[in-house]
Amino acid sequence: MENKPVIKVIGAGLAGCEAAYQAARLGVQVELYEMKPHKYSPAHHSADFAELVCSNSLRSNDTSNAVGLLKEELLRLGSLIMEAAYATAVPAGSALAVNRAEFSRYITEKIEQTENITVIKGEVTEIPDDGVTVIATGPLTSEALAEKIANLTGGTELHFFDAAAPIIDFSTVNTEVAFFASRYGKGDPTDYLNCPMTHEEYDAFYRALVTADVAELKDFDRESQKEPTVFEGCMPVEVMAKRGYDTLRFGPMKPVGLPLPTTGEEAFATVQLRRENKEGTMYNIVGFQTHLTFGEQKRVFRMIPGLENAEFFRYGVMHRNTYVNSPGFLAPTYATIACPSLFFAGQMTGVEGYVESTSSGFVAGVNAALLALNRESMIFPKETEIGALAHYVSEGGVSSSFQPMNANFGIIAPFDKKIKGGKKARNEAYATRSLDILEKTFSCFLKNENTD
Length: 452
What we know:
five-stranded parallel beta sheet, Elongation Factor Tu (Ef-tu), domain 3, FAD/NAD(P)-binding domain
C-alpha cells in the first residue's frame, strides 16, 4: 500500500486530540506527541488525554445559545470531543457537564485505538521545521516550547490568568439549609444545590472575601512585577467582588429564579453548586473560581450557609494561560500565515473555553490533513459559529487589543435584514442557517471523505 502522508500534532489536550482524530479520519498518518506522564504542568494530574483542569461543564446545550450551537455543529461534523462529552455526561439541567475521569479515559482509549494515530510520549521542546505540524500544547505550554513560540511570533506572545472553582463533598453539605433547584425550574432539580443568604450573611461574607489572603503566584506564573490580566470568563470571585458590593449579587450569586422552598421569596443572594458527577457525591461552586489560599478558601467559603462544615475534594486554583496575538499571524484555517505548514490550535490561538478549543482543533486538524494530501483548504464561513471563531482569531475585533473570545452570536455574520421576534428568534435563525450550511456542504464531505 502507498505510504500515507504524515503530520505531527503536539499536545493531547482537547484541541490536540480533536485535531489528531480528524486528520486520521481523512486518511493521513498522525504522530501525536504528549509530554505526560513523563512531565506534568502544575495544573495537570492525570496521565489521560484531554484532562479538564477547570470546570466540568461544557455550558449550554441550547442551540439558541452560541456555545450550544457550536456543540451541535461539532457533533454533526463527527467531533471526538463532543462524542466523549455526551457519552460521559452527568445531569446539569440545560447544560452539558461531564464526569472528568470518564471523559478523559474515553478520549484516551479512542485515540489509542484509532487507526492512523501513533502516540509518542515525551516533551517536545522545539518547533518541528519539516512537514505539517499542529501545535496544540494549551494554556500551560512548557517553558522551553513557549519560548520558541514567543520567538516565532516576534514577541507578540501574551499571557492571562485562569482560575478554577472548588469542589465540595456533598455528604458534608447541610441540606437543611441548602436546597435542590434549577433556576426557573429548568432541568432536574437535583442538578444544582442552592445556598441562600440574608442581607446580613452576605455582608459578612463579602467583607471576609475582599480582605482574604490570596495565594502567592508560583514561579511559572510570574510576569515580572506586572499585575496579571484576568480573562473575564474566569474572573476569580474575590477579584469580581472588589468591583463593587453588589457585583456578585448580579453575577454568580444572583438569586433570581431560585425561590426559597419555605417562603417562595428570593433570598438576598444565592450561591449555586453544580453536580460534578453522576452519583451526585461531588458539587462544584458555580462561578467561584479563586486564587485565595487553601486556608482562606476553607474559612471564607464555609461562611456560606449550608457549607459551614463543607469538606473540599479540590480547592480552587489559579494558573497562567498563554495565547498568541493571532490576527495577522494565523489564517482562518489556524495555519500560520508566514509558514502555512505550521498550525496552532486550542486556547493558545485566542479561543476561550473547552468547546471553542475543540472547534479550533477540528479546523486545524482537517486543514493540516488536507494540506498533507495536497487538497484545497476548508474555510468555514462566518455564518457558522465554528467559522465565526476562526475568522475572529485571524482578523480580531474592532479593538486594536486582541483578547480571547468565547463563542457568541456577536461574531457570527449578521442577517441582511432584521429578524422579527426578538433576540431568541434571531438566535434561533442563526442556528437554523448555520446547521443548514453544514448539512448541505461540509458534513457530507467530512463523513464520506477518505483517501485510503
